[in-house]
Amino acid sequence: MPAARDETDHQSSGCALSRRGLLMAGAGATAVTAAGTAPGVAAQVPSPPAPPPQENLVATTRVTLSVNGQPHSLVLDNRTSLLDLLREHLQLTGTKKGCDHGQCGACTVHLDGRRVNACLTLAVMHEGARITTIEGLGTPEKMHPMQSAFVRHDGYQCGYCTPGQICSAVAVLDEIKAGVPSHVTGDLTARPLLSIDELRERMSGNLCRCGAYSNIIDAMADVAGLAVPGNGDRRPA
Which residues does the UniProt record annotate as the domain 2Fe-2S ferredoxin-type (predicted)? Predict the structure, then answer.
């Protein structure tokens, strides 16, 4: 019996491959085909081509506008706020950056005759616009009547919010004159009354951490020709 088994093995070995060898050879061939390399060698996955070098991707726009009567043409990052245009590009630092979220009013300027918070609007939105800042209202030698009234009534303490307060105060009187209603206007079809309540309501978006509110209203009442609060019926001379 052992001799017969040896003969069978010998006859099997005379074939090209044993069953085990055939299976191993097939698996090796499959691996070579799939990986594209010899068995036992790690497959090399080609790396993606490197992207071409990119230049500055910041989008810019040329903006031309008038600031305090002077024309300016600048190429700006599209994300530049009107406030940063004034302060960083034109060095008009009278307009202050307070909260930078439209909550304090320190950055108030006049845009085409209407007051806006300069921190909340992009410069590229105002091609051809007319901007007036505190520097454009008056100078130390020739002050705007509202600036003079703020000095006369001590409408400031630290002074940081004062440029925005003055720009807003000037716009408030123009709004009332133009008949623009406010939240305390009783009848929206009627012209708003020029009153202390109207002044207070319309100035509520300008914050003063020093608390000079009563003096600010005094200054505005002075310019508007109203009786100054606390002085009875006496009108300012």
Answer: 61-137
